[in-house]
Amino acid sequence: MNSPISQHDKLTATARVWVAQTFFGEMLKQMRNSPFKSEMFDGGRGGEAFQAQLDQRLAERMSRGHAGDRLVKSIVRKIEGKSHVATTH
Q: What's the CA angle centered on 37, arms 25 and 52, to 5 degrees?
């Protein structure tokens, strides 16, 4: 039996996507474009072709890690706090 997904769970999932894309995704993009990057980790033509997909997966995983989870929870608390204030006034 499937239980319905709560509004909190939906908000958490959405916040996790935001954190992955806007925070970790941008951080990885900046790292890839850094003048200090090492050729030792260059993936050649295959690396170029699949770099975006790798970065997307890394960003998703990072958003589920300790730092990402704390950021997601902070965003959810802030949004839920504002929506709670808006509905009570």
A: 35
Question: What is this structure's pTM?
Answer: 0.71
Q: Which residues contact 70 (CB under 8 A, 6 or more apart)?
A: none
39 within some domain:
no
Domain contains 70: yes
* Count of domains forming the chain: 1
pLDDT 10s digits, 20-53: 999 999 998 888 888 877 776 677 787 778 888 9
**Residue 31 corresponds to which tokens in the numbers above?**
């790292």
Q: Among residues 28, 31, 29, 23, which one has the least CA distance to residue 68?
A: 23
